[in-house]
DNA sequence: GGTATGTATGTTATACCATAACACGTCAAG
DNA sequence: CTTGACGTGTTATGGTATAACATACATACC
């Protein structure tokens, strides 16, 4: 599977697909995809774009879950730890991972016009970064690679 | 000049050197390195690590400058625009650029133990990222590449 | 079944990060 | 000497994130 990218796609299908794989992954590990956590993942998948913690929280509260920040942050942190979601530093926001389970070093392409976020294949990027870090004697544990620019649609519009 | 890295170095020298080059750059352009801005740059250089805006503000206030957040943020934003400082998204913090003027795509190595931050040469990383983005039709304007891990000293200590 | 233990959720309170909007001062151009 | 651009100071507010504690729920073990 290539990256989901900015192009149109069968959204219901990709959402269901990811959820199913999330369930499978959580059984494999000893992790529990509780109602709040599952719902947060669904919300992220439905939105299909980066959402702030407080946006997620609002949705949760409207559905009878707790309405205090920690409720959202805990679920989001869990999803990030489990590789089911990613945090976009640049936007102080979160987005569902579109191919959970696969080992992947995420690189994000953020459109500054429409705010869409795509995951790009980042292995070569990571390799280059490892090389640069290695020559400094630095041991990388996690990396975040985020690019801001214009997605294809917004380039066309301009 | 290679990256400053995590190793010991003549700190007074690198600070003075960068300041001198900042002055030169500001004359070239039509930009003004006013007292507040210059002082903020000095503070960042002296600290030689990432500092939050409020940390900088505290220092400024103690020296008779304004003590409200915008004072710090405006100076910091100016320095970032001019390429004299960088924002570290991961830390909500700022750090002085160690080689201003030189075209450079910054990649940051952040030690999770001692919080030191080094700039690593990122051209290859950037190239790989451009390639990945290009295949999606995405046009990169700015990128932030940040790695969290352990610096050499903290690896040795562990 | 009952109970202990760990984990998840809910809630209060607070800390931290960032910017909008307006007032005042200064300096150079006209 | 006035106008306009820019920089700084200040008030107020908005957005992001977490510490700390209380409660509930699940599972495993007796």
The sequence of SSEs of chain A as H and E is HHHHEEEEHEH
Average of per-residue pLDDT values of chain A = 92
What's the count of strands of chain A?
A: 5
Helix vs. strand class of chain A: alpha+beta
| CATH class categorisation of chain A | Mainly Alpha
Radius of gyration of chain A: 16 Å
| Number of self-contained structural domains of chain A | 1
Number of helices of chain A: 6
In terms of per-residue confidence, which ranges of chain A show pLDDT below 50 for 5 or more consecutive residues?
none
Largest sheet entry of chain A: 3 strands, mixed
Distance N to C terminus of chain A:
30 Å
Overall geometric form of chain A: globular
Family (chains A, B): Belongs to the Fur family.
Subcellular location (chains A, B): Cytoplasm
Subunit structure (chains A, B): Homodimer.
InterPro entries (chains A, B): FUR, Fur_C, WH-like_DNA-bd_sf, WH_DNA-bd_sf
What do these coordinates show?
The structure is a homodimer of 158-residue chains. Chain A has 158 residues and is α+β, with helices and mostly antiparallel strands. Chain A is built from six helices and five strands. Chain A has a three-stranded mixed β-sheet with strand order 4-3-5. In chain A, strands 1-2 form a two-stranded antiparallel ribbon. In chain A, strand 3 and strand 4 (117-120) form a beta hairpin. In chain A, helix 1 (11-28) packs antiparallel against helix 2 (35-47) and helix 3 (53-62) crosses helix 4 (69-81). Chain A is globular, with a radius of gyration of 16 Å. The interface between A and B is large, with 40 and 40 residues. Strand 5 (139-150) of chain A pairs antiparallel with strand 5 (139-150) of chain B. The structure holds a DNA duplex (30 and 30 nucleotides). Chains A, B: Belongs to the Fur family. Chains A, B: Pfam families: FUR. Chains A, B: Its main location: cytoplasm.
């Amino acid at each position: 599977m290539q990256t989901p990218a900015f192009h149109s796609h069968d959204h219901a299908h990709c959402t269901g697909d990811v959820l199913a794989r999330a369930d499978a992954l959580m059984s494999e590990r000893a992790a529990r995809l509780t109602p709040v956590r599952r719902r947060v993942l669904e919300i992220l998948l439905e939105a299909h774009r980066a959402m702030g913690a407080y946006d997620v929280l609002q949705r949760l509260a409207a559905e009878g879950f707790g309405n205090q920040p920690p409720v959202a942050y805990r679920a989001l942190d869990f999803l990030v730890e489990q590789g089911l979601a990613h945090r976009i530093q640049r936007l102080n926001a979160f987005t569902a991972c579109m191919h959970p389970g696969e080992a992947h070093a995420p690189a994000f392409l953020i459109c500054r016009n429409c705010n869409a976020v795509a995951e790009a294949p980042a292995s070569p990027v990571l390799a280059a970064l490892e090389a640069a870090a290695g020559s400094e004697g630095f041991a990388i544990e996690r990396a975040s690679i985020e690019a801001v620019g214009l997605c294809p649609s917004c380039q066309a519009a301009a």
